[in-house]
Amino acid sequence: MEKDEGFKPKLAGDIQIRFFKKDERGGFYIISRRNKKSYLKMHEVGREIVEMLDGDTSVAHIEKALKRKDVEVDLSRFIKLLGEKGFLENRQASEKKHKKNSLILHHIPLLKRTEPILDKIYSVSYKFFRRKVFLFLVLTNLTIFLMFLTALFTGYIQLKDFFFIDNSVFFAVTVYLLLIMPFLVAIHELAHGIVCFHYGGRPQEMGIALFFFIPVFYIDTTDTWMLKKKQSIMVFLAGPVSTFFIGNLFFVLSLLLPTPYINPLRMIAFGSYLVVLMGFNPVVGSDGYYILQTLTDFPNLSSHAWSYVSMWCKRVFSSVSMDDYKEYITSYSRREKNILNIYAPFVFAINVVLICLMGYWGVFFANDLWKTTSSIIETVPNIPATTMIIWLIQLVYIILIIYFLFTTLKNLINRSRAKILEI
């Protein structure tokens, strides 16, 4: 937006503002639009400006009012940012948006309004929200999980029980990705939506997401950020907890049902425990990460961490001046700097480990692909159809791992260079 002192910005009618936190820099607030996905953290000065955006007061008059109060702020930049985020009625939102769909993640919306469906599910499941019932379920499931660990470590059940097709890791991975994970993710996401609905949030879009061509269910619960702190944490916990319950249920069924069902049931149980473990990872964009963000009152924590590491590296290698470095550091409160000093190196180390693990799995699948290719060469021209199918799946795995590694490295570099705007 070009600087236009005569422009009279008007705030959209469905704006919500809630107190976020207070530190030595003053108070901070979260502004959002009802049924929109735009959220912005702003200082109490920003809130004061927002309250003057009535459509009758020009930018020039707002600037004069701020000068009388000895408030220094880049008003044009703030108004521009509000317009780009869609918070102004008389300024069109920016058309430059992040791509919602990509080769890694492609969304296919099925429903725009989820309230009718969630209302029906909630009418059946609301009893689980009673404190005594919930505590009973938690204690029961912890006991069952201890039984699982005991059976695993004592040798009563074997790890091979989780790879029931010819004891093949390759086939097991395929079954997990294409059959088990979509089911677990659907339960996981529905739990987020129901708990958000329970606390008065309004989950929005529901549909199918293709993660590396693997179908998974999703539900948009961005309204969670406008809930109270404890309620937000409960929404984020709902997914892993529900998946944990599913894992225990299928483990118990594997103990009760006849032998032919044991391996498939234990695969679902084991897959559930893996999803829970991955869900509590505080580094990637998982429930554990969002819980950490909420507990620390630190939005975009991961992006700040990468920016923090990047700026520290630039300072070490003299890519930035000491003055620029000090100006960057002083933008954080004492508490935020303490958090970043711990979290930023941890994020860096874990991402390095994850990239190395993906590289290791790439070598593993490449080795399998080479063996299958050799088998095909030896059987030409009478190549079994099953062998060709296996070869194609293995090739897809290799391509996706290479693409994942490339895009992960690219995203981490971009995030470390990004300027994080907070007014």
Write the SSE topology.
Blueprint: E1 15-23, E2 26-33, E3 39-43, H1 44-50, H2 59-68, H3 75-84, E4 105-111, H4 115-125, H5 131-153, H6 169-198, E5 206-211, E6 214-219, H7 229-256, H8 262-279, H9 287-296, H10 301-316, H11 322-329, H12 334-379, H13 385-417
Antiparallel strand pairs: 1-2, 2-3, 4-5, 5-6
Task: Please provide a written account of the structure.
There is one protein chain. This protein is mainly alpha-helical. It folds into three domains: 15-84, no CATH class; 105-294, no CATH class; 298-417, no CATH class. Helices cover 59% and strands 10% of the residues. Strand 1 and strand 2 form a beta hairpin. Helix 6 (169-198) packs across helix 8, helix 7 (229-256) runs antiparallel to helix 9 (287-296) and helix 12 runs antiparallel to helix 13 (385-417). The two termini are 17 Å apart. 24% of the residues are buried. Residues 95-101 and 418-423 have low confidence and may be disordered.
Low-confidence stretches: 95-101, 418-423
Number of domains: 3
What integer value in Å does the Rg equal? 26 Å
- Total count of strands: 6
Give the helix/strand class.
Answer: mainly alpha
Portion of residues within helices = 55-70%
